[in-house]
Amino acid sequence: MTGTTHRNEGEAETRKTDLPSVCVVTHPLAAAGENATRSLLDILSAITSVALVTADLPTDSEIRDRHELVELTQKGAGNSVLVAAFRFLLNQLRMCRVIADRDEDVVLFFGATSYLLPIVVARLLGKTVLVEPRGDVPLTLRLNWEQQLPDKVAAGLAGTVRALERAGFAAAHGVVTYTPEMARQLDLHPEAPTVYPTGARYVRTDEFRVQRPYADRNRVVGFLGRLDEEKGIRALASVAAELPDDVTFRFIGDGDLRTWLEAELASEIDDGTVELTGWVDHDDVPAQLNDLSLLVLPSQPTEGLPTTILESLACGTPVLASPVSGVPDVVREGETGFLLDSRDPDALRETILDILANEDRNSISAAGRDLIESEYSFEAACERYCGILESAAGYSS
């Protein structure tokens, strides 16, 4: 962290005695969930005392060394619906027991918004309860279950999870969302007194910064993330194959479709118009983003606000993304980035070429960086959570 971050952490330290302590509760964590949880813990630990209750935390997670941890189990959700349902119930019972033994004043359910039993128990114990969805979990589950079950069964199960989530929203003292638009897509009213629609996310602005002036960048368009079906990789491959020779398309990341991409785009890879970097360490991501003129991220409707979008804007790299959940509050059409109307390859290709011809890209690059500095820096995130904790504690008392 930079000296600025340390100073603000020191200033936040003086407020710790005024803020309630927090117990963060999550469901079993995959890699993406671990990153988001680590960011949340970093924010909270700068302003108050915090502990994490979770399951199946990766063995090499930084969280183990940096924060107090209670691990319910090392088992994940399971590969079958029946196993997942059993572990879902069992983990809730374990959570109830742990929460009853904790001294924290606030219990924040991060992502685990359908864990109704521990939410209710925490309230009955007199604790302030906050829930913070990370995205549309019921929709995510439905899409996964449709690969194993008849559509009607998958929809019914997902509907049950959504009902539990809605009950969790109602039982909690407050619901935190990433942006106002995310709140609306979850059928919450951003102006409601128990909704906190600008929940803090943050970017390490000292690491993710403009290293290469935007005007000096070549015509390189990129995707950063998992090379999987749900990320629209096949459509992006079609786009990459049809772009002009003076435009390079770079796939940054790894995944199940890596081998398919290498075969599908073999000639383009040979002539240098398509590049596959493979897995890139997080420390090397800022350099990759600084080498792009445009990041294309066909965001899924299940996502809340992908961190990659914030990191790209912090590096002065405009983003072309689908207008789902909280994305439009950050990727503002023609101001900080561009919104994707269609994932059809032909339409996507034309949109990319129109953006590369846009004479306002330099100002859009600067505006994206300004937005991150003003609203998504570590300091701004700490201030937001100070306000959320103060308000929620006052509302529940």
Work out the helicity level: 40-55%
Shape: globular
Q: Low-confidence stretches at least 5 residues in length (pLDDT < 50)?
A: 1-14
Tally of distinct domains:
2
* Strand adjacency order, main sheet: 3-2-1-4-5-6-7
Rg calc: 21 Å
**In percent, how much strand structure appears in the residues?**
5-15%
CATH topology type of the largest domain: Rossmann fold
Distance from N terminus to C terminus (CA atoms, Å) equals: 36 Å
**How would you sum up the major sheet?**
7 strands, parallel
Oligomer: single chain
**Secondary structure category:** alpha/beta
- Individual helix count: 17
CATH superfamily of the largest domain: Glycogen Phosphorylase B
Helix and strand succession? HEHEHEHEHEHHEHEEHEHHEHEHEHEHHH
CATH first level of the largest domain: Alpha Beta
Using DSSP, what is the number of strands?
Answer: 13
Mean pLDDT, all residues: 88
CATH architecture of the largest domain: 3-Layer(aba) Sandwich
InterPro entries: Glycosyltransferase_grp1
GO molecular function: glycosyltransferase activity
Briefly, what is this?
The protein has 17 helices and 13 strands. By secondary structure, the chain is an alpha/beta fold.
Compile the SSE list and pairings.
Blueprint: H1 3-13, E1 22-25, H2 31-47, E2 50-54, H3 63-66, E3 68-71, H4 81-101, E4 106-110, H5 116-124, E5 128-132, H6 137-145, H7 151-171, E6 174-176, H8 180-185, E7 195-196, E8 220-224, H9 233-242, E9 248-252, H10 258-264, H11 266-271, E10 274-278, H12 285-289, E11 294-297, H13 307-314, E12 319-321, H14 327-330, E13 338-339, H15 345-356, H16 361-375, H17 378-396
